[in-house]
Predict the 3D structure of the following.
Amino acid sequence: MSKNIPLVDVTHLHAFDTDGAIREAADNVERAVSRRGLLRNAGFVAGGAAAAAVMPGTAFAASIGPIDKSILNFALTLEYLEAAFYKRAQENMNLQGELKRFAKIVGDHERAHVVALRKALGSDAVKRPSFFFGSATRSRSTFVATAIALEDTGVEAYIGQATRLRSDKLLAAAAAILPIEARHASWIRYIAGLTPAPATFNPSKTKDQVLAVVKSTGFIRS
Amino acid sequence: MDITEFDRDEAVAEAMHGLQEMTRGTVLKRAGLVAGGGLAASLLPSGLAFGRAAGGSRARDIQILNFALTLEYLEAEFYALALKHSAEAGFGPKTLRFAQVVAQHEAIHVNALKSVLGSKAVAKPKFDFKRTTRKISTFLLTAKVLEDTGVAAYSGQAPRILQAAVLGPAASILAVEARHAAWVRRLIGGSGNRVLPAPTAFEAPKSMEQILEEVGATGFITS
């Protein structure tokens, strides 16, 4: 992780709930204000620009609405977690061959996602929590099992949030990250000897469901 | 291959030029898009039925769904044919497993999209896969192209969708197509990853026009 990303000693769950962003987001799914209206108010011109072009290097936090902001911070937290996990594994484990390549390539992707989300959020970006991965980065089998859980959860999280994003630009960005997470999930499942695509329709998870999964791992240091 | 031949009832041409705006009632009735998430419930076991408020139009959603259906028809037909030829093509157990699982997924995607679109569903084109299913090597390379194309297509269309009841399932299918793409890339690349399952940090979305041009260039669609 880049050294200019501050470490904090609160859990991201805590940080999240402090301003009630999660609750607010969850409670406002059924809303009266039209998404288009919000975009106009925010001075956006809705457009289908390519996410990869839009997202990295574009700071427009001031014009992102509160719900989209909380969704981006939720995604950022998951990306922090994934990036830190692969970094730790690369440092602590003597990974070889394909697993070594997987950790390097996927770790690079997750870092790129972190950078993109932080740039989009600007000063509103949630701080990077500190993590404790324990046995997850101590053996090949626990590393693989954890990577599968993190990647599958990441896919489910992005699917769950896609319909809640109001900005077309941000939705385009999410639609460019979501399939990458799915490719990671498929790859590591193949390595593990599992079916890479186990469902005809990929399940989704709500923010609360994802946070419960993340919390249960104990990876967030408190 | 001429794009105009892409679909004999001109549904694709219609899609490319934009569907005529219809009244809300007509569209809802004809496409079976009942407000309140009935669509998502019919597509997916888990509900994704939030009300996505605005952006795009219901007519454009139908256009996008028909575009997706055409790609799914193509994939489903390709894998069904590949399974018929699997013995002579020399599929090993790993390739056979991939073809079986993905064939089933694509067939179900077709059925789901058709049921959503109802009478607005585009007709299935005729295909000629030109012996690509007769050899394991050409099967895998073609599968890679089709899956990567499917991912780029869904990734490009997602932000253009109006209704959450359409977007949710589309995002769900996008993930599955990406899993297929990584899977076949891994089969081709082997454990040395000569072909990377996830070659970039961000997917490069493609427009409907780009996709139709690429699909047209394959010559797989004959009428």
Summary: Residues 56-218 of chain B form a domain with the Ferritin fold (CATH 1.20.1260.10). Confidence is low (pLDDT under 50) at residues 1-54 of chain B. Chain B has one domain: 56-218. The CA atoms of residues 131 and 205 of chain B lie 29 Å apart.
